[in-house]
Amino acid sequence: MKGYTVAVLVNNQFGVLNRVTSMFRRRQFNIRALTVSETETSELSRITVVFDGEEIAKQQLINQLYKLPDVCSIKELSDDNSISCELLLIKMQNDAKTRDEIKGAADAFGAVVVDYAKDYIMFRVADTTRRIDDFINLMRDFTILEICRTGSVSLEKSITTIRQVINL
Amino acid sequence: MLTSGSDIIVKTLIEQGCDTVFGYPGGQILNVYDSLYTHQDKINHVLAAHEQGAAHAADGYARATGKVGVVISTSGPGATNLVTGIATAYLDSIPLVAICGNVPTTQIGSDSFQEIDITGVTLPITKHNYFVGSVEDLADTIRDAFRIAKSGRPGPVLIDVPKDVQIATCEYEPKTPVQKEQAFAAKDVRVREAAEYINSCKRPYVYFGGGLVTADAQEEMLALAEKLDAVIGCSLMGLSAIPTDHPRFLGMQGMHGHFASSMAMHNADLIISLGVRFNDRVTGNRSKFAVGAKIIHIDVDGSELSKTVNSVCGLRGDVKLTLQKLLPLIEESRKPEWTSMVELFRQQEDDCLDKREGLTPRQAILTLNKHIGENTAVCTDVGQHQMWSAQNLNFKTSRRFLSSGGLGTMGFGFGAAIGAAYGTGERSVLVTGDGSFGMNLNELATAVRYNVPVVVLIMNNGVLGMVRQWQTLFYNKHYSNTVLERKTDFTAFAKAFGADGEKVNTVEELDEALKRAFECEGPYVIDCAIDKDEFVLPMLPPGGSMDDIITRLEAQ
């Protein structure tokens, strides 16, 4: 099994996300992360799907996506041809014993302290999924209170855009 | 001119070339029915006995004509009753537009009386669906629905229209019927690749399904088979596309396919597949399916290529246009060794053919063959009678065998036969079993009311024969709930509904009854006695390979 990232441009309409995720569910695609937001044009939304599977499952996912009338274009993104980023908010228990160690690790990862109280401390990290995984693993040595992460977003490293993909 | 939503619906249907719709009225679709009343000189509405029957009728109409079938229902239960009909069309890629009423937009989401989220319910069984929130969007939504339903790989589209949108008014300008999206041939490089495989093969098997019928590519397929000296087989959905007696045609393959057809496919070195999707009923155990063969797969739907079996060459494109591009690259060749090998399979098939006299299932269908005309649509339900029909009917014209292939919907046939009769303007035939017929026999009321000439042939064995067959073979003859033990008198039933009918026990009686049925103005029901232990053979056990094929049964 490999991880794949696929960006999907869809009509920005009520219920479109449901159409996409309903297809994933009924064909049992193994979705690891999914983000959705408006784009540079208000008519279109962009969905970024990260999923695990074989090459043939990826091809099937892309082909099935193309069949949805609300899907405008699709682009497969790899580490080589794109920049990916994910956002993490993590809330740690704050006590005198571990405070310095936690802050040291956070500094090493470029985590920003976004909230601080005597009993908890909250960090924000914007980085690749892999780096965020690493950071969370590091934090597991201490007491994690709560985690929220967004799933990865990706853009191609090129002058071309996803809208220029020809739908075939 | 300011036009109401309901008038826009009816006018847009007329504008799109639709002259017959099937349906059932109700509270939230009343306005559309009022508009149908006003426009009854231009559009004919057929009132079914049940929304499911209406959906199957629209589907049968579409299958027989290639046009988009239209079904109309009210909200709530009216809409949910369409579900099986829509799913049947979806699995067989049939162009269908379903229009449902719904509660007014102000009440949506409040669990009002007869409110259901039908776009949610039908999401996985439609090619696309719409909830129309404003009357301004209505006409273009219907046009879009027709375009999507018939373009590429066809399928059903549902439009949910709240009552206040039917009442509201806006400007309406008639437009010309929407065209299918431009079809395209597969890429040159793929076509050249395919030609190389084809030109070097020794044992070619051309395999087609419903996609060939949709693309209307029979001529091109026959030309290809002729050029490379191939034999031809098909899936259930392909039946009737070419005449049964075509010398290269071996018939349907698969779980209950013709022995020679399945054997030829199993022994081929190249399978050229046209508009098929290699369903499990076709392949059996996929790891043992045609192991010596390379597969070339042409389909308009790219997601079908390598979905279930791996092809060496997948060509995404319209089957007709792609074959037209491929044909000039194919070298003329003769393959006498392959031909004689297939001839041997044909002999083997003939050796195990059921040649018993008397009213056997095969004799019943052969007797029916004597009566059906060039243009007669034969519809089936699902089960043993469906397979006996598929194996033994003598097809002459494309789009004249209508059967629920993908979903396997018992109760499909009667609605479909009514729709087909409207579509062809001729008498249609329903071959059914007593189990399947019991599911939607209420549609006899529809056939009687409109005097639709449908010959109903019930192969009555008093059991759910196909399930029983599996119980015999794989469940230690535990006949759990497959023995019907009903006391239904189908002749009396036909008469009670205002039709005519009779019971037959011999081939001669069946022949006479069919003669009367084919002369009858309206529907005619023939209750044909079949033994409960009859089997559909050959049979490839589920998940089995050609080594496991059952051609004879000791018990018989």
Written account of the structure:
The complex is a heterodimer of chains A (168) and B (556). Chain A is an alpha+beta fold and 168 residues long. Chain A has four helices and nine strands, in the order βαββαββαββαββ. In chain A, strands 5, 6, 7, 8 and 9 form a five-stranded antiparallel β-sheet that branches. A four-stranded antiparallel β-sheet of chain A has the order 2-3-1-4, covered by helices on one side. In chain A, strand 2 (30-38) and strand 3 (44-53) form a beta hairpin. The longest helix of chain A is centred in the middle third of the chain and has 12 residues, at 55-66. Chain A starts with a strand and ends in a 12-residue tail after the last strand. Chain B contains 23 helices and 20 strands. The termini of chain B are far apart. Chain B has a six-stranded parallel β-sheet, with helices on both faces. By secondary structure, chain B is of the alpha/beta class. The interface between A and B is medium-sized, with 17 and 15 residues.
